């Protein structure tokens, strides 16, 4: 089930449990996880994109290993809230992972990468370090926003 409302998503979840946040890009998928009590989201890993079947296998393994109960996928809307070509791609990705059998929340992530990049710049992280961290930190930012809205 793909939701755009936190209430619908929360109702679709089988109780509390770990959630995974995904920042789906063209070359990478940033992954974050939260604790079972939905207190804090933490960056987990960055998956280098390949064919969807390879990406799906990596995500399935992570979901199984971490006992994930739901997915929060960042939806890159235009600044005016309308869909963009990237938005269409992320919606298609969500439809493709729907067979995992987990509730999916599409969460507005317009400012996630910019906010994380700004934080890394303030921390004086090198360009290489920023590139290494930005996707999984953006996923954590997305997931934290969603869990804050649900509690």
TrEMBL record:
The keyword Cytoplasm applies. SMART domains: YqgFc (SM00732). Residues 17-116 form the YqgF/RNase H-like domain. It is an enzyme of class 3 (hydrolase). It is found in: Cytoplasm. InterPro entries: RNaseH-like_sf, YqgF, YqgF/RNaseH-like_dom, YqgF/RNaseH-like_dom_sf. Its EC number is 3.1.-.-. Keywords: Cytoplasm, Hydrolase, Nuclease, Ribosome biogenesis. The keyword Magnesium does not apply. Belongs to the YqgF HJR family. This is Putative pre-16S rRNA nuclease.
């Amino acid at each position: 089930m793909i939701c755009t409302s936190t209430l619908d998503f929360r109702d679709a979840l089988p109780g509390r449990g770990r959630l995974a946040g995904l920042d789906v890009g063209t070359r990478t998928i940033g992954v974050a996880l939260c604790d079972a009590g939905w207190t804090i989201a933490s960056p987990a890993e960055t998956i280098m994109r390949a064919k969807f079947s390879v990406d799906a296998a990596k995500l399935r393994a992570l979901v199984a290993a971490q006992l994930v109960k739901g997915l929060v996928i960042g939806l890159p809307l235009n600044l005016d809230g309308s869909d963009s070509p990237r938005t269409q791609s992320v919606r298609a990705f969500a439809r493709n992972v729907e067979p995992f059998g987990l509730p999916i929340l599409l969460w507005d992530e317009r400012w996630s990468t910019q906010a994380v990049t700004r934080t890394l710049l303030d921390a004086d992280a090198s360009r290489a370090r920023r590139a290494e961290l930005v996707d999984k930190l953006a996923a954590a930012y997305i997931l934290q926003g969603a869990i804050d809205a649900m509690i």
